[in-house]
Amino acid sequence: MPKPIFINLYQHKNKLSKIFNRIKQKRRIKRTFLKHFLYQQNMRIAVIERERCINGKGCSFLCGKLCPVNRQGKECIKLDEKNKPVIDESLCIGCGICTKRCPTQCIHIVNLPEQLKEKPIHRYGINGFELFSLPIPIFNSIVGIIGRNGIGKSTALQIIAGLLKPNLGIQGKEATFDELIQHFKGTEAQTFFENLKEGKIKSSFKPQQVDLIPAIEKGKVKDLLKKIDTSNRLTEIAKELDIEKLLESDIKHLSGGELQRIAIAAAFLKDANLIILDEPTSFLDIKQRLKTARFIRKECSAEKSIILVEHDLIVLDYLADYIHIAYGKPSVFGVISMLKSARAGINTYLEGYLKEENIRFRDYPIQFQERAPPKQEPTAI
Ligand code: SF4
Ligand code: SF4
Fold first, then answer.
1. pLDDT tens readout for residues 13-22
2. 38 CA distance to ligand 2 middle (Å)
3. What's the gap in Å between 118 CA and the centre of ligand 2?
């Protein structure tokens, strides 16, 4: 008579448990490998500064010739119709040979921070700069953005102002409002894009390069400002920004500092409830900086939101209620951090470490000396 099967299984329980454990372990390894593989696939970007590439003028497609993936017969780096290299990020294994051997160092292969899990908001072309996340304006508040140059602060402001349509990293396609609302679902950015779609937000943008204004606008300052003075506040704002004497001048004769104050006046004269200022105190001396900062602070109200990029920490500390820190690699990628209170934001910026995101964006903290370093006596050579 055959023995009941449960008795047989019980006898072999140790063997069976070993087999099950092995299967479990194999599955775990497979899952970890897949996770790692997928992460690596998504988190590495290749950026080429195309204007610096000298293919055909001193370089004969060296990157393509040395790439180990190309040497296996695949097309990881190929030339486009303009004879410039294009890297297929899905084939790139991140060996770094092309970055080291390129004579102009115009290739960047970068592993993005592990914590960066979202898709980019905007990418400038194939193998172009990528921007992740956006700053969000808040009514009755001034939101400041701080960070080094070349990491997408101005791009972020242009998207907020509606001057640049983001593509969510997909080339040749502009994201619709509905796609942006879906992308930012559950965040404050969702509300912002919903309001923008419904026409509840009217923005006024002051660009960073005010010295280029005379190339676009011609004529007397007063006439130019009057054209946009929908609220009839020209006299009041001109007095506060100390530009009364400039009103009769021709715009082409103004200095950088004068153009800056005229541009700020124009931004506030327009009929808008979102004022976007890209570096409002550059070109200004210390006295004008404080005066301008006082004016901007006074203009913030329950019906108005102000968002600005500023490098002067003292001005930013005085102006901003909240701060975003922009970090990344210049010309490669940029990330806008979560919103922080002004004090916490400036301290975090100085420290170089984003605690909430667990990201170190600078290897060293910025420290100020209480006293100027002692003068060193010149030594004879
Ligand atoms: S980093 Fe990528 S593109 Fe550059 S040589 Fe290596 S595999 Fe090729
Ligand atoms: S090695 Fe550098 S310069 Fe030469 S083709 Fe490649 S990217 Fe251009």
1. 677 777 777 7
2. 28
3. 30
In a domain, 22, yes or no: no
Domain extent, residue 62, equals 50-109
Q: Does residue 337 share a domain with residue 215?
A: yes
214 domain-assigned: yes
CB within 8 Å of 174: residues ≥ 6 apart: 165, 166, 167
Residue 43 falls within a domain, yes or no? Answer: no
Residue 51: CB atoms within 10 A of its CB come to 8
Same-domain check for residues 96 and 142: no
CA nearest ligand 2 atom 2, residue? 102
Ligand 1 close to Cβ of residue 95 (< 6 A): yes
Q: What is the CATH number of the domain that holds 231?
A: 3.40.50.300
103 lines ligand 2 (CB under 6 A): yes
Reported as a single tens digit per residue, the pLDDT across 45-90 is 999 999 999 999 999 999 999 999 999 999 999 999 999 999 999 9
- The count of structural domains within the chain is 2
DSSP SS3 for 10:
helix
Residue 4 belongs to some domain of the structure: no
Report residue 7: phi and psi, to 5°.
-70, -40
Ligand 2 centroid distance, CA of 85 (Å): 7
